[in-house]
Amino acid sequence: MKDITKILVPFDLTTTTDSALHYAANFVNLDESIEILLIHTSDASDEASYEKKVKDKVEYIKKEYPYFKGSIRWVITTGDIVQNILETQKEYLADLIIMGTKGAESDQAVTNTSKLVLEADCPVIAIPEGTKEFELKKIALVLGKNEIEDATVLEILLNIARRFHAEVHVLTICNEDGTYGYSAIDEKNETTLEYYLENFYSHHTFQENTDIEKGIFDYINDKEIDLLAILPRNHSKKTKPSEGRLTQLLTLHTSVPLLTID
User: Fold this and answer.
1) pLDDT digits (tens, 9 = 90+) for 234-252
2) Average pLDDT over the chain, rounded to whole?
3) In this model, does residue 107 exceed pLDDT 60?
4) Of 248, 219, 217, nearest to 232 (Cα)?
5) How far apart are CA 259 and CA 262, in angstroms?
């Protein structure tokens, strides 16, 4: 299983990105092997002032989290925010992106974070603005009726569950007539989940709801889930790729951190 050694955090000194940095610091905790790489996209004129501000922020984080043993450095870029994040992730071989999100009430809205989660070729955790308490004891993985195409991507979920001794719930929302949980695909997925998530896999729940998004958020609230996870299918190779609509909606509306696994 690949270890997490580098976390990329888009940062611009706003409260939204501040939430992401605090989450990342808690995530790293005592692990000296993990580096946080802050990326800031700016116009050339504010580079010097940003350098001073980010240095102050790094010192503040180290004082606020005396148990934080990782390292922090930063890069400054210009141009398109999402494209810069994608290129920096590949250049520095970041294993995980943690990015803040303001969300949006409109289903038609497109934010930088909702674009990034679909375009990135690595896992992304979207942190809703205002997230303060760090808790990671219950994870809910949303799974559809399709076969898990690349089971190895579940290794990041196992890594996180193992790091925080978290239990992983698996949730399938049944929004169409039919039998769920007993097909050959369901059986294969179950075997995959048991193998890749080991003893951190708790159970698989099938719930009926014509509104998939509402069904997911109802489950999160009812079970007090700390981290929501989803396997976007917009990069599928064996089956027709989806447009990633559900992933975008969850990114826009989630009240808990959302892990997109790719």
Assistant:
1) 656 666 656 778 999 999 9
2) 88
3) no
4) 248
5) 10
Helix or strand (DSSP H, E) at 64:
helix 47-64
Q: How many domains does the chain have?
A: 2
What is the DSSP secondary-structure string of 93-140? T-SEEEEEE---SSTT---HHHHHHHH-SS-EEEEETT------SEEE
Beta carbons within 8 Å of 254's beta carbon, 6+ residues apart: 103, 126, 128, 217, 228
Tell me if 36 sits within 8 A of 70, measured CB to CB.
yes
Q: CA angle, 38 as apex, 69 and 141 as ends, to 5°?
A: 80
Residue 203 and residue 161 in one domain: yes
Q: Is residue 133 part of a domain?
A: no
For the chain, first and last CA: distance in Å?
A: 15
Packed helices 15-28 and 47-64: angle between N→C axes, nearest 10 degrees: 40
Q: What is the CATH number of the domain that holds 145?
A: 3.40.50.620
- pTM of this prediction exceeds 0.90: yes
Verify that 118 and 151 share a domain, yes or no. no
- pLDDT tens, 46-79? 667 777 888 888 888 888 888 888 999 989 888 8
Q: What is the pLDDT of residue 179?
A: 60
Q: Write down the number of H helices and E strands in the chain.
A: 8, 10
Chain-centroid distance of CA 92 in Å reads 19
Q: Which tokens is 103 given?
A: 């969300």
* Domain residue limits at 203: 138-260
